[in-house]
Amino acid sequence: MNPLLERLHPYPFERWRELTADIVPPAALAPISLGIGEPRHATPAFIEQALVQALPMLASYPATAGEPALREACAGWLQRRCGVTVDPATQLLPVNGTREALFAFAQTVIDPTRAGATVLCPNPFYQIYEGAALLAGAATAFVASDPQRNFGADWAGVDEATWRRTQLVYVCSPGNPTGAVVSLAEWQMLFELSDRHGFVIASDECYSEIYFGDEPPLGALEAARRLGRDDWRNLVAFTSLSKRSNVPGLRSGFVAGDARLVKPFLLYRTYHGSAMSGPVQRASIAAWNDEAHVEANRALYRAKFARVTPLLARVLDVRLPDASFYLWAGVPAACGGDELAYARGLLAQYNVAVLPGRLLAREANGRNPGAGRIRMALVATPEECLEAARRIVAYTESLEP
Questions:
Q1: From CA 67, how far away is CA 85, in angstroms rounded?
Q2: What is the pLDDT of residues 302-342, one digit of tens each?
Q3: What is the spatial distance between Cα 301 and Cα 151, in angstroms, rounded to a whole number?
Q4: What is residue 328's DSSP assignment?
Q5: 240-263: per-residue pLDDT in tens?
Q6: Using CA atoms, how far apart are residues 371 and 361, in angstroms rounded to an integer?
Q7: Is 0.90 topped by the overall pTM?
Q8: Strand 235-240 and strand 253-257: pairing?
Q9: Which of 18, 100, 242, 254 minimizes the number of CB atoms within 10 Å of its CB?
Q10: Distance (Å, rounded) from C-alpha 233 to C-alpha 239?
Q11: Residue range 132-146: average pLDDT?
Q12: Domains of the chain
């Protein structure tokens, strides 16, 4: 067996199942899960129809690079959404969702023979970043979160020695689990550091279309364009249809950026066997070419957050995120700030599942930045989310002396 597999941590949801195996929630209350970030809004019918109509394509092997029509649809979306022009033949590649691509990309760009090979990622974080780094033979360094910036990563706090060892930086904007968005000034700092030290930036932007302000979140490619970096040097952005179009089972997204990185990534994925099926490609074309369903989806999330967030703010340290469909909430002092105990009690007494923050983070400098916080994914129906909020309020108030 590959000895690097032994370095992997249990996935957060597996760990949570172990920690709650002894709990029997009250049968009188219907279960409500705010734990897994799986979109549960209805998939648009026109995307399903495009998938069905393309089923005859199952008789042919798909190309790893994808159909030209799909690459052009993705490039067209980037132009409309971000004002960014990419060459669909050399600077863009369809992928089977961002999870697969974020993992595989590290296997392409990491050189484990270089002493101290390091992957830098935010903390708390999406666990795929850490697994990708470990199986690529690199160490993982974590960037502390900044409570003053909605718990976004404190890139300015990274020491120079760590930057020198770094080969790959994972940026998640909007962030999972915090919902924080990277600013133009932060992007400029990261680009300048990349120029100085030569590391690659992988920007995970799968939550970019769920936001609450008037302006959409700033993506990496758009930031680079604003700063005059139109060659996307050492930069690749990852995005997905899962959250944008409510098709998590479609497993469809794309990467775009530096052609010098996209070319070897295509070579790797050709050997890896990562071609997207023809019907999925056709459904993806339909999805990327339509914005009306995205606007409707965003309106649903905005309505849910507008009702749920003020209610929860009565008893928890929580506020509206910059973007994404998560609330990153601090638990009350009445439970000693122990989010594991809080989440177990909530499940045991009110049949509501949330994810304890420390399972989404790693201890660094003697502290786990997820401790004392829970992640709630408002992916269920508005009625279920509101009912969950009412139960959370009742449970939290019951903890007060």
A1: 19
A2: 999 999 999 999 999 999 999 999 999 999 988 889 999 99
A3: 21
A4: E
A5: 999 999 999 999 999 999 999 999
A6: 8
A7: yes
A8: antiparallel
A9: 18
A10: 18
A11: 95
A12: 3-42+293-399 (3.90.1150.10), 45-290 (3.40.640.10)
